[in-house]
Structure formats: structure tokens, C-alpha cells
Design brief:
The complex is a heterodimer of chains A (about 80) and B (about 650).
Chain A: E1 2-6, E2 21-23, H1 30-36, E3 48-51, E4 54-55, E5 67-71
Parallel strand pairs in A: 1-5
Antiparallel strand pairs in A: 1-2, 3-4, 3-5
Chain B: E1 7-12, E2 17-22, H1 25-31, H2 34-45, E3 59-62, E4 77-82, E5 89-94, H3 98-104, E6 110-113, E7 120-125, E8 128-133, H4 143-154, E9 161-164, H5 167-170, E10 178-180, E11 184-186, H6 191-197, E12 200-205, H7 216-232, H8 243-250, E13 255-256, H9 265-270, H10 276-279, H11 298-301, H12 306-312, E14 313-317, E15 327-331, E16 342-344, H13 348-353, H14 363-376, H15 380-395, H16 401-404, H17 414-426, H18 431-434, H19 438-444, H20 469-477, H21 489-495, E17 510-511, H22 520-539, H23 543-547, H24 555-563, H25 569-589, H26 621-632, H27 643-648, H28 652-655
Parallel strand pairs in B: 1-6, 7-12
Antiparallel strand pairs in B: 1-2, 3-4, 3-6, 4-5, 7-8, 9-10, 9-12, 10-11, 13-17, 14-15, 15-16
The chains are: A mainly beta (about 80), B alpha+beta (about 650).
Chain lengths: ~80, ~650
């Protein structure tokens, strides 16, 4: 399956196709996304994950066309 | 065209008369509304060389094409006119509840001409406009109290909305603004002084006219989708103010990546802009009149932790049509002499300009200053920069106690700043030297030019171009220079504008290091940034909503649904380019050399900072300006829009003078 991913910061962006798509196996979950993006365990508390614009849990299953993004805290004002 | 009211109100204050002008469909098609409409009116009605503080200047209040249409976060208005601060195009953007009141009064803009001999205010209800005596408020009543009294006076079935000026604008301070909703302020460009010069104390609106919408069902569909997204975006409980420096540092500071901007909503909901008090320690926060890195403010910054501000917050509020709600009010009855009961939660800009910029972390003092500025109608960004300028002049011995009337201007001391601020507002004593901002002050304080941070006369917002060069570029190339609300790389990466505009480069995963160089792709991004910001200002939209991404905050779709137009993204972005070029042509007509709007050397890293997160950073501003000019269709050597561009945008006829 192919899902759309938006993530800032120290994730492994090299696994993304066209900068924003992740190809995963059939039984993939949100945990798989964290893992594939290599988001370090110690930083995971600072990432808030959303699946199709709803808060997501690690065990949530994914399907083709899903959109996953991570809340990040950046500078601005 | 739907979404707009089809006419403007023109008020001649000299003759105390008013008239209405129907606006042709073709004008809306070209300029949409809001700032776009204002560029058309002001180009036409302000004569070349007009004195900004004379009767020949025109002061306009414009809502957006989307204001009041059922779209979200589109309730902002702009004040426009020739700026007395920069001598060129002036505009200032503000939230609150005033904007829909203009359309409900029946107009897409209210424009003031001439000068009244006595203080007046404009009142409009469904019976029509009236120009009324304001003598009892002039020189006696601050902006917040005037608003309250006028609203009480004119409340019948509907509570009116109101903008006013305070003492700073009455005394023609070139860094004064226009106040609404008890202390929100259209602060930039010195347009408060223009209102003061016209002896116009207030505008009170109590109309209830219906705002037409072309496709209400489509509007509802888009709005519902946005509402659903915003509703679930909440910060997890563990995110506290103290995590912002760590998170800011940890999260990919060296890489740029496209991000879904909706993720910012949680932060805005909980904190508003003050999250940047600490995340700005990543290098974004200016320190000691832009002379030091954030390394030198790190320990002090703890006392500006956003959580401390939340503790003072008594309630949150939303601007008109906003479903995010970054605003708040605070109890300050126990601060200072107890003169004030409440104040708006100071924005990050205010906390920085009277905090780190003065090496101060006196949060109580900043709250007190915030309310002084709100009531007097003084721009906290310009006032803070001006104060920092004065402190540096004092430190360097350019001015002494003899000049300051005995006051010691020591870094970190906000009490002294409060005294100087009061003098600035009253134009008394030492404060009189500073009342018009840093550029004017350098004319009165010889040898102080190197201490004055500004672009084209306007002091910079509190975001450091050494952290993000795009900020410095837009502060220098925008026809209203010095503003932090136009463009930056952080803004761009979350807008997803490339999904709507064929020529806007897609944000790729890339290192930030090359952003300091002048590149063609960077220039196109910056041009797209300018165009989309003008489009947002034509619509009454909020910058923060834009940062949630056009894929979420579907401005392009709302515009077509509200107006009945069927314009593509490229066609809508062309309106933005047209408006940006009209603003630039206004400056050219007024004899402004675009190179003179370049940001002060220190602010852009000349010389670079020797330490801290932005150590060594400087960038090719001149090269970036030239590439920006080239891509937008302005002469790359002079910044003057080319004839070909004016013809292509179909604005040659409006700009020939």
C-alpha cells in the first residue's frame, strides 16, 4: 500500500517516495510508520501522530491512500 | 460578483460629506477585494507627492472578499494609506470583530479624504452614515475607553463594532496604529498618525446588511471539513512551555521538509503566538537590539515561559469567524500601580520587543507596557525597537543623562522603559526624540545611525533573518518593508501552495544551508509567498490560517464558492501578483528607491554573530532581492516593475502618473 506522510525533523526522509509517500506492506500500522521513518524512541513523545486528520494510536491499521502526519513544534509567531 | 457588497463609502472630512461609489465588476475581477481594492482606490485618489499627514492622503479600511461569507478565519481587515513612516505604500492588518462590520454596513471599503477641523467620528447603522462630534473624547480618553463608551452609546438592538485611536496617534506619532476590540491594533506603517491627522477619532459600525454568497452549500461543505480538522488538533498534555526549546532544537533544524500545516493548530489553540517566546531560542529571537545571539538570553528566557503567561490568562477569545482562537485576556490588576484591570495576552512580538530586545525578562513589566501601548495606540514592535535603539545609544555614550532627563537606560530595566514610553506617547522630554521611531530619531541624535534597526524606515518584526533568510528578504522587498508577516521559508513549507499554483515550487526535503544563497528556486518560492499573502489580504484571511495549509484552509475553493468566480489557482495567484505590483508601483511613484528598503546590516548578519545557533550566518540579500525582482517581473537592477509586467497584469492604466 502507499500512504501519504508529512513529517518534519529528524525522521529518515530517504524512505519517502516523491518526498511524501511511503510504501508499506499489507499489515502495516502506525507503529510501522514510526519505525520506517526511524523516529528515535526518545523523541517519540514529541511527535503527535494523526491518521486521516484524527489522533492515531500505534496499533491503528493502515490502508492504501491513508494520510498520516505528525504534529511538530516549529518557530513562528 | 457575490461575496462583496459592490460599493465603497467615501467620506470627505473637510466638507463633512459622504458619498457612495459603485465598483465595476471588472475591478473586482482584477483586484478581488480587501487590499486589492485598496490599491486601485489609493493609486487613483492619492496624488503623487501627497503629504501623508495632510488632507490629500486617503485612509482606507477594507474587509476581505471572504469576510462574513461563512468561511473560516477570514475576519481580518486592513488599514491602508500612504505611510508617514516609510513615505510609501502603507498597510496594516488586524483581527477582532471590526471587519465584517464594514460589509454589514453595506461596503467593501470605507475611505477617508480631507481633514476635519474638529475631532469627529463616523457612525453607520442601517439608516446610513453620520459624521459626529468627537470633541469629548479627543485628548481626554484613551483608545480602549473611547471604544467602550462609543459602543455603549450606540448599542440598540445590535452591539456595534469600533476602531479608535489613542493619544499617540492624536499626537501624530509615526509609529502609532489604530485600535479595536479593547486593544487589538492595526499597528504597522504609522497609519494611526494618518487617522490622527484627519482628526478622526473613531469609526463605529452597527449595520446588519446581508452579505451575498454565490454557493452557500459549497461554502458550508468546505467550512465543515476545515472545522472537523481543527477540532481534533489539540496539544497533548505533556507539551509544556518548557519543552519548546528542546523540541525546537531537536526537530530538524538543519532540514527543510513539506509539512502539514494543520499540525500548528494545537499550538495556536493552547498558546497563541507566545510559544515562540522559547522556541525562538533556536535563533529566531532577537537579543539586545539585534546585537547578540540567543545564547545570551537562554537563562533569562525561562521567565518568559509561555506557561507563565497562561497562568495569567483569564479567558481565551476568537476573532470573527476564527475557529482556532489564539487570543487571550489577562488579569493585570495586581501589576505595577494597578492602573489597569485587564490586558490582551501580549503577543510574542511584544514579549520579544520589550523582553529579549532589551535583555529583560520582566514579564509583569511587559504586560503593563502592553496595555500602555494598546491604550495609546502605539506599535509595540516599533516602540520596542526604538527603545532598544535608545538603550544602545546610552550604552555607547551617544546620549547621556543630560539627554534623557536623568534617566539611566540600563539593559534589562523595564521600569525605565515604561517611563520613556509614557514620554514618547505624550511627546514630552526625552521621549519626544523617540516618538516617531528609529529613523526619525537618528535625525535628532547625531552619530546614532548604526544603532537604528529598520528597513525603509520601519522597524523589523521579532524574527531574525540570520535564522531564516527569507524573513530578511521579505522585510526588504515588500513594498511595506520591515514586516514579519509576508514570507519566510517556515511559512512556505506548510502552505502546500504548489498544489494550487503551477509555477510555485514544491517544497522538497532539503538542507536549509543553501537558503542563504540566491537561487532561482528560492526566488520563485519567495514570489509565490508574496502573491499568496496578497491573495490572503484580498480575502480577509489570517496568516496563521494560511500556515495551516491551503489543502486544509481551502482559500482557493472558498473564493470561487463565495464569489461565483471560476478561477484557477494560477488565475487567483495572478491577482496576488497584481496587487503586489500595484503596491510596488505606488512606492515608485512616490520616488522610493527599492534598494533603500533593504534591512539594516546588523539584522542580516553583517557582521555575523560570533556565537549561538545562528553563528556565522549571513546571506546574499542583494542577490536574493535581484532574483526576486527578476522572477516577479520587476527590473532586476532597480526593482521597478517593467512595462511588460504592467501590461501583462493589465494595470498599466492604473499606474501611469
Amino acid at each position: 500500500m502507499r500512504i501519504k506522510v508529512s513529517v518534519a525533523g529528524i525522521a529518515d526522509h530517504s524512505v519517502l517516495e516523491d518526498g511524501e509517500y511511503l510504501v508499506l506492506g499489507e499489515k502495516a500500522t502506525i507503529r510501522t510508520v514510526y519505525s520506517r521513518l526511524k523516529i528515535p524512541l526518545y523523541l517519540r513523545p514529541f511527535y503527535r501522530c494523526y491518521l486521516n486528520y484524527k489522533p492515531a494510536a500505534m496499533r491503528d491499521k493502515l490502508k492504501d491512500g491513508d494520510e498520516v502526519f505528525f504534529m511538530t513544534l516549529a518557530a513562528g509567531g | 460578483m457575490k461575496g462583496v457588497m459592490g460599493k465603497i463609502l467615501k467620506v470627505n472630512l473637510t466638507a463633512r460629506e459622504w458619498s457612495e461609489e459603485q465598483i465595476d465588476e471588472g475591478i473586482y475581477d482584477q483586484f478581488l477585494g480587501g487590499i486589492g481594492l485598496a490599491t486601485y482606490i489609493l493609486h487613483r485618489d492619492i496624488q503623487k507627492g501627497a503629504d501623508p499627514l495632510g488632507p490629500e492622503n486617503v485612509l482606507g479600511f477594507v474587509p476581505g472578499a471572504l469576510t462574513g461569507t461563512g468561511s473560516f478565519v477570514t475576519g481580518r481587515f486592513l488599514v491602508t494609506g500612504k505611510s508617514p513612516l516609510t513615505g510609501g505604500w502603507g498597510d496594516s492588518n488586524c483581527g477582532g470583530n471590526f471587519s465584517p462590520g464594514i460589509k454589514q454596513a453595506g461596503y467593501d471599503g470605507i475611505f477617508f479624504y480631507g481633514t476635519s477641523s474638529e475631532p469627529v467620528y463616523l457612525f453607520i447603522d442601517n439608516k446610513g452614515p453620520q459624521i459626529l462630534d468627537a470633541s469629548e473624547y479627543w485628548g481626554t480618553t484613551d483608545a480602549v475607553d473611547t471604544e467602550q463608551q462609543l459602543i455603549e452609546k450606540h448599542t440598540l438592538r445590535k452591539k456595534p463594532v469600533c476602531v479608535t485611536i489613542g493619544e499617540a496617534a492624536e499626537k501624530l506619532s509615526l509609529i502609532s496604529g489604530i485600535v479595536n476590540d479593547k486593544g487589538r491594533i492595526a499597528a504597522r506603517s504609522g497609519l494611526g498618525a494618518v487617522m490622527g491627522s484627519k482628526k478622526l477619532k473613531a469609526v463605529v459600525l452597527a449595520g446588519s446588511k446581508k452579505i451575498p454568497v454565490a454557493k452557500p452549500d459549497k461554502m458550508k461543505e468546505i467550512s465543515t471539513e476545515y472545522a472537523n480538522k481543527v477540532r481534533v488538533m489539540n496539544l497533548p498534555g505533556f507539551v509544556k512551555g518548557s519543552t519548546f526549546p528542546l523540541v525546537g532544537k531537536a526537530l530538524g533544524l538543519n532540514m527543510r521538509t513539506p509539512m502539514n500545516g494543520i499540525a500548528m493548530v494545537g499550538i495556536f489553540k493552547k498558546y497563541g503566538t507566545i510559544f515562540a517566546n522559547l522556541s525562538g531560542l533556536n535563533g529566531d529571537l532577537p537579543v539586545k537590539n539585534w546585537a547578540l545571539s540567543t545564547k545570551h538570553f537562554k537563562k533569562k528566557a525561562k521567565k518568559t515561559n509561555p506557561d507563565l503567561q497562561l497562568k495569567k490568562e483569564t479567558n481565551k477569545y476568537h476573532c470573527s469567524s476564527c475557529n482556532i482562537g489564539c487570543g487571550g485576556e489577562a488579569d493585570i490588576s495586581n501589576i505595577g500601580d494597578g492602573a489597569f484591570k485587564t490586558t490582551h495576552k501580549p503577543e510574542y512580538e511584544t514579549v520579544a520587543s520589550f523582553g529579549s530586545l532589551l535583555l529583560s525578562n520582566d514579564l509583569d513589566g511587559i504586560y503593563y507596557i502592553n496595555e500602555i501601548c494598546n491604550r495609546a495606540g502605539l506599535d509595540t514592535i516599533s516602540a520596542g525597537n526604538t527603545m532598544a535603539y535608545a538603550y544602545e545609544c546610552y550604552e555607547k555614550g551617544i546620549i547621556t543623562k543630560e539627554d534623557t532627563g536623568g534617566l539611566e537606560l540600563k539593559w534589562g530595566q523595564v521600569d525605565t522603559a515604561i517611563e520613556v514610553l509614557k514620554q514618547m506617547i505624550r511627546r514630552e522630554g526625552f521621549g519626544a526624540l523617540l516618538a516617531d521611531g528609529v529613523k526619525a530619531a537618528t535625525r535628532k541624535i547625531p552619530g546614532s545611525e548604526d544603532c537604528a534597526m529598520h528597513a525603509g524606515g520601519q522597524e523589523p518584526g521579532m524574527h531574525d533573518p540570520r535564522f531564516e533568510s527569507g524573513m530578511g528578504l521579505h522585510m526588504s522587498v515588500d513594498p511595506t518593508p520591515g514586516k514579519h508577516t509576508v514570507g519566510a521559508e517556515t511559512y512556505y513549507m506548510s502552505t502546500a501552495v504548489w498544489n494550487y499554483c503551477s509555477w510555485a515550487p514544491k517544497q522538497k526535503l532539503e538542507s536549509k544551508s543553501h537558503e542563504q544563497e540566491a537561487t532561482h528556486e528560492g526566488a520563485w518560492k519567495n514570489v509565490a509567498m508574496s502573491a499568496m499573502k496578497q491573495l490572503v489580504d484580498c480575502s480577509g484571511g489570517c496568516l496563521f490560517a494560511m500556515l495551516t495549509g491551503f489543502n486544509n484552509w481551502r482559500l482557493f475553493d472558498w473564493l470561487n464558492a463565495a464569489t461565483g468566480m471560476e478561477k484557477s489557482g494560477d488565475q487567483l495567484m495572478e491577482i496576488g501578483l497584481r496587487v503586489q505590483t500595484m503596491r510596488q508601483m505606488f512606492n515608485i511613484r512616490e520616488g522610493i528607491d527599492p534598494w533603500k528598503n533593504k534591512m539594516a546590516d546588523r539584522v542580516i548578519g553583517r557582521p555575523p554573530l560570533p556565537d549561538g545557533p545562528t553563528k556565522g550566518n549571513s546571506f546574499d540579500l542583494e542577490g536574493q532581492m535581484q532574483l526576486y525582482w527578476e522572477k516577479i517581473g520587476w527590473d532586476r537592477e532597480t526593482g521597478v516593475p517593467t512595462r511588460e509586467t504592467l501590461e501583462k497584469l493589465n494595470i498599466l492604466q492604473y499606474t501611469e502618473a
